[in-house]
Design brief:
about 400 residues, Rossmann fold, Tyrosyl-Transfer RNA Synthetase, five-stranded mixed sheet, about 45% helix
């Protein structure tokens, strides 16, 4: 929280209707479960009567936020960004209201960046320093490793920072990995508009090893997936994120989550808690009826083991693989794919399930430390193999 909790409290009790926003670069075709934490926080502001804006970074999305990246992103075209942004409003509506009383609004930062004059942009850059921009952790890491930093990445914080000025923002909400960019916006608001902007951060959803749950790591739970796939993908999450995900991404009361955490610590099967989590996520996205159907289908297919009884079992040792390992490599070594490119194609086409969850991210990584009992891999309708750690 910047500058402080007291500053937010003072703003909330002032009687002013705050303008609150979160920005999302449309670099993927779907939002994921990690976005739910920020959307839930925006919903709280919306319920309090404040103005909520979901900003689609269609301009910045063509550049690519370097946050957390050890190498430069491949820039996207306008067409790719527009295609990816199409479904965001519908998916976000699982949490935010875009109609009725006090509706949230959708904006795009191309509204001001497409017409930004070069002179104006240079004036904006004069408000910060190279030393300030180089403070970013990932830039320091790249410098130490001798990896390049593209100029457009270097300037990305200025682009995101100016969004707060363009929309006259009072509060920006975002995940902790966006803190640097959000604070850049706070600096610009102070210097250009002589007022305070509050930055409210929410924790990243990470596994026990600190690895982010999301698109970049290949373990994304896609809000755009069909209800049964969304349920299965949630069930494929590691046990270590159950409590964090339930806390950040659902509306389950804190007291119930605390009770679930105590039960698991006392030896309760984490699967039951994960079933609750998956049901909550699907219910939020598609409604209770769809969530019930998805749960029943999952139980019928996987908990009741309605898969062949003679599924071949292989170990990482016999496959000469070390943990963690790309899913594409596992497919090749187990004979479910003829090559890495074939495996990636099958994955992207939705032809692979891991413990019942469809994986469409070609770069998905499987960490067997999170699956001590192994994983069941299914290709198509008839090909199964169980891989053990």
């Amino acid at each position: 929280m910047y500058p402080s909790v007291d500053a937010l409290r003072e703003a909330l009790v002032s009687g002013k209707r705050l303008r609150v926003y979160n920005g999302i670069d449309p670099t993927a075709s779907t939002l994921h479960v990690g976005h739910l934490a920020v959307l839930q926080k925006l919903r709280q502001f919306q319920d309090l009567g404040h103005e909520v804006i979901l900003l689609i970074g269609d301009f910045t999305g063509m550049i690519g936020d370097p946050t957390g990246k050890s190498k430069t992103r491949v820039p996207l075209t306008r067409e790719q960004v527009d295609a990816n942004a199409t479904a965001y409003r519908e998916q976000a509506s699982a949490v935010l209201h875009f109609d009725g009383t006090n509706p949230a609004t959708i904006r795009r930062n191309s509204e001001w960046w497409d017409d930004m004059r070069v002179l104006r942009f240079l004036e904006l850059l004069s408000l910060t320093t190279s030393q300030r921009l180089l403070e970013r952790d990932m830039f320091q890491e790249r410098i130490r490793e001798g990896k390049p930093i593209a100029a457009h990445e270097f300037l990305y914080p200025a682009l995101q920072g100016y969004d707060s000025v363009a929309m006259t923002i009072d509060v920006e909400v975002g995940a902790t990995d966006q803190t640097f960019n959000m604070l850049m916006g706070r600096e610009y608001v102070k210097k250009l508009q002589s007022r305070e902007k509050i930055v409210l951060t929410v924790p990243l959803l990470v596994d026990a090893a600190g690895k982010k749950i999301g698109k970049s790591e290949g373990n994304m739970v896609e809000l755009g997936a069909p209800s049964s796939d969304l349920f299965g993908q949630t069930m494929a999450l590691p046990d270590s994120v159950i409590v964090a995900c339930m806390t950040q991404a659902t509306a389950v009361p804190a007291a119930e989550i605390a009770a679930i955490e105590r039960e698991m610590a006392a030896g309760a099967n984490p699967r039951d808690a994960k079933m609750r989590l998956a049901h909550e996520v699907v219910c939020m996205r598609y409604g209770e009826v769809a969530a019930d159907v998805a749960r029943d289908l999952f139980v019928q297919t996987f908990q009741k083991h309605e898969v062949p009884h003679d599924v071949e079992t292989k170990s990482l040792k016999t496959l000469r693989l070390k943990n963690p390992i790309p899913l594409s490599t596992v497919l090749v070594r187990t004979g479910l794919a003829s090559s890495t490119s074939d495996a990636r194609r099958i994955i992207q086409q939705g032809g692979v399930k891991v413990d019942g969850a469809v994986f469409r991210t070609a770069g998905a990584i499987i960490d067997f430390a999170e699956h001590p009992d192994g994983i069941l891999i299914q290709k198509g309708k008839r090909h199964f193999v169980r891989v053990m750690a």
